[in-house]
């Protein structure tokens, strides 16, 4: 996190809320840009935009006037819990045969038949 962002937040920002990842969301108390208040997030840990839950993403991008935290509290059966993109971390998916998995994978079963234009 840049020290200039923290200083700007101290002097010109008002805390709006915090998400499940402990990211803190602010809006400006000063002048507006294009008649819209400035909104920003201070990330907990690494600056990773994928760690912003959908309800806060909508607020950051001026889709809604207030964070949708109450609507997000209603969990539907088809929803999964939001998690940050693990690409490039130790939690990322590694397929069988990947070098980090030992470089070995199961042998082919032989049930594959190549397509040929002569066959109908």
Radius of gyration of CA atoms, rounded to a whole number: 23 Å
How would you classify the helix and strand content by structural class?
alpha+beta
Shape descriptor reads elongated
Number of helices: 3
How are strands sequenced across the largest beta sheet? 1-2-3
Question: How far apart are the termini?
Answer: 61 Å
Outline the low-pLDDT stretches.
Answer: none
Main sheet specs: 3 strands, antiparallel
Strand content: 5-15%
Number of strands: 3
Helical fraction = 10-25%
Could you state the order of secondary-structure elements as H and E? HEEEHH
Look at the structure and give the mean pLDDT.
84
Concise account of the structure shown:
The chain is of the alpha+beta class and 120 residues long. The protein is built from three helices and three strands.
Overview of this structure, please?
With 120 residues, this protein is α+β, with helices and mostly antiparallel strands. The protein has a domain at 3-73. It is built from three helices and three strands, in the order H-E-E-E-H-H. It has helices at 3-12, 54-60, 69-72; strands at 13-18, 24-28, 39-42. It has a three-stranded antiparallel beta sheet, with helices on both faces. A hairpin with a 5-residue loop joins strand 1 (13-18) and strand 2. It is elongated. The termini are far apart.
Q: Main traits of this protein?
A:
120 residues; 3 strands; alpha+beta; single chain
Itemize the secondary structure elements and their pairings.
Elements (H helix, E strand, L loop, with lengths): L2 H10 E6 L5 E5 L10 E4 L11 H7 L8 H4 L48
Antiparallel strand pairs: 1-2, 2-3
